[in-house]
Amino acid sequence: MRERTKADSLRRSERAPACVHAGGARGGGEAPPARNAAWWITVFPGLAIVATALAWNTLGEALERRFVPSRRSR
Q1: Which residue in 2, 9, 21, 34 has the most C-beta neighbors within 10 A?
Q2: Does the residue 21 lie in any domain?
Q3: How many structural domains are present in the chain?
Q4: Closest by CA position to 48, among listed 40, 59, 58
Q5: Rounded Cα distance, 7 and 33, in Å
Q6: Alpha carbon of 69 to those of 59, 62, 64, 73, 74: distances in Å?
Q7: Residue 12: inside a domain, yes or no?
């Protein structure tokens, strides 16, 4: 059996700190309101996803027109 160390005898609250929020408040603090968040954090990645989806869709349609004989326009 291993020997008990001081860390073993400490309570959990003394060993591991509580969650610290961005404001520095310890526990029980309120999160900042969503309206204060930067809008571009969601807008630009969303636009990148839409642009990527449209690009793949356009490429897929072009390849289909090129290689699927039944879909070729006359």
Answers
A1: 21
A2: no
A3: 1
A4: 40
A5: 38
A6: 17, 13, 9, 9, 10
A7: no
Residue range of the domain that includes 47: 37-74
Q: Residue 15: CB partners within 8 Å, gap ≥ 6? A: 7
From the number of C-beta atoms within 10 Å of its C-beta (0-12, 13-18, 19+), residue 42 rates as exposed
Query: pLDDT of 2-45, one tens digit each?
Result: 676 666 665 555 555 555 555 555 555 666 666 667 888 889 99
Question: What pTM did the predictor assign?
Answer: 0.48
Name residue 26's beta-bridge partners. 20
C-alpha to C-alpha distance for 16 and 55, rounded to whole angstroms: 48
Handedness of CA 22, 25, 29, 32 (dihedral sign): negative
* H or E element in which residue 5 lies: none
Q: Is 8 within the bounds of a domain?
A: no
